[in-house]
Amino acid sequence: MNISVLLSGGVDSSVVVHLLCEQGYRPSLFYIKIGMDGTDYMDCSAEEDWEMATAIAHRYGLPLEMVDLQKEYWEQVAAYAIDKIRRGLTPNPDVMCNRFIKFGCFEQKVGKEFDFTATGHYATTVHKDGKVWLGTAVDPVKDQTDFLAQIDYLQVSKLMFPLGGLMKQEVRDIARNAGLPTARRRDSQGICFLGKINYNDFVRRFLGERQGDVIEWETGKKIGTHRGYWFHTIGQRKGLGLSGGPWFVIRKDVEANVLYVSRGYDTQWQYGREFKIHDFHFITENPWLHNQEVDVTFKIRHTPEFMKGKLIREGEIYRIVSSENLQGIAPGQFGVVYDEASRICIGSGEIGI
Ligand SMILES: Nc1ncnc2c1ncn2[C@@H]1O[C@H](COP(=O)(O)OP(=O)(O)OP(=O)(O)O)[C@@H](O)[C@H]1O
Fold it and tell me: Which sequence ranges form a coiled-coil region, renumbered to this chain (predicted)?
C-alpha cells in the first residue's frame, strides 16, 4: 500500500511515521509550506518545523518533500477569514485549511498518487453500511473532528488517522520511548496562521482600526470605546478593557460599528437555545434523508463536550435546537453535527445570523 504522510515536524505526525514504519509501511513524507516568507506574519517556528521533519525523515530513511501551498493558502484561507471578519462574522480558518489546503490542494497535487494519506489528527474513520464515515477520537480533549467537518467523501475515504485510538499522553510516551527528536515539542494551536501569529495584528493589518462605541445592551448607555468591531467576537469576555465586569459581547452592529455588551456571568443575553445553519455539508452522505427532525449531538466551538439537541430541516436550511443554553453563539463559526452517541461526525455548516 502506497501511503503519504503529512508531516508537520510536531510530535503527533512524527509518531504517525513511527507507527506506520513499525507496521512495515514505507510512507512518503510531505511538509506543507503555508506561511509567508519575509514577513512578520510567520514566526521562526516554521524553520524549526522543517528541521524536525528532516530529522524524522533521516531517522527512518524515508523521502521527504516540501509542498509549497502558500499562494493557495492565502488565496483560499486567509482571504476567506478576512472577508468573514470584515462582515462581522467569526471565521474558522482551521476548518477551511483542512478542506482546501491539507486535503484539497495537497490531494490534487500530490495525494492523488497515493492510496492513502495519513495525518496526526485526532480522529478516526468508521466503516458502516459499506461507507466510510468520520469518527471521533478516543481522547475527548484532543478530538479534532470539528476541524475536519467540511471535508468530503473522497477525502475521508482516503484518510488514515493512526492516532485516533490513542490518548495524547500515550502518543507522547511512544515518542519518548522511540527517542524521537520531536518528543518534547509543544502542541501547536492548529496549523493556521491564526495560531502562529497575533490575531489582532493580523486583523489590524488588513482592516485597520476604527473607533466605535461600546454600549450596555440593557440600558443603552455608552460605557466605553473599541477600535473596530472586527477585533471582537460574540461571547467574548477578555480584551474589552471595561471595569466592573465580567462583560460579554452579546451583539454587534456592523453598520454602526457598535458593540453591545452585557454584564455578569448569568446575563441571559449571552445565551441562546437555537441557531440556523447555512449550506449544511454532509461529509459522507445524509443518513437522515427521511427525517425532518433528529436527535443529535453537536459543537459550536472547539470544546471537549458535546451538546445535545435536535437538528431540524426546514427546506434548504437546517436549525439546531439545543437541550441546554448555549453561551456565545457566534455567526460564522461552524455548527458541527454528530450522531446521538457522538461517535460519528456527520457534517457541518456555518452558523447564520
Ligand atoms: N505544515 C504541515 N505540513 C504537513 N502536514 C501538516 C502541517 N501542519 C499540520 N500537518 C498535519 O496535520 C495534522 C494536524 O495538525 P495540527 O496543527 O492540528 O497539529 P498537531 O495536532 O499539533 O500535530 P503535530 O504534533 O503533528 O504538529 C498534523 O499531525 C500533520 O499530520
Answer: none
Rounded Cα distance, 15 and 17, in Å: 5
Checking if the pLDDT of 196 tops 60, the result is: no
Closest to 341 in 3D by CA, of 34, 93, 136, 47: 136
Residue 197 confidence class, pLDDT cut points 50, 70, 90: low
How far apart CA 57 and CA 47 sit, in angstroms, is 15
The answer to whether residue 201 scores a pLDDT higher than 90 is: no
Known binding residue 35? Answer is: no
Ligand 1 nearest-atom number relative to CA 11: 25
Question: 223 exposed, middle or buried (CB, 10 Å; 0-12, 13-18, 19+)?
Answer: middle
Residues in the chain, overall count: 353
> 44 or 144: which carries more pLDDT confidence?
144
Q: Output the CA 121–ligand 1 centroid distance in Å.
A: 7
Q: What domains does the chain contain, in order, with CATH numbers? A: 3-120+162-196 (3.40.50.620), 209-266 (2.30.30.280), 271-351 (2.40.30.10)
ipTM associated with this complex:
0.97
Best residue for ligand 1 mutational test, from 8, 45, 72, 102 (most atoms within 8 Å of Cβ) = 8
Q: Which tens digit of pLDDT belongs to each residue from 294-326?
A: 999 999 999 999 999 999 999 889 999 999 999
Name which of 72, 64, 82 is nearest 36 in CA terms: 72
What one-letter code names the amino acid at 245? G
Residue 4 in 3-state DSSP?
A: strand
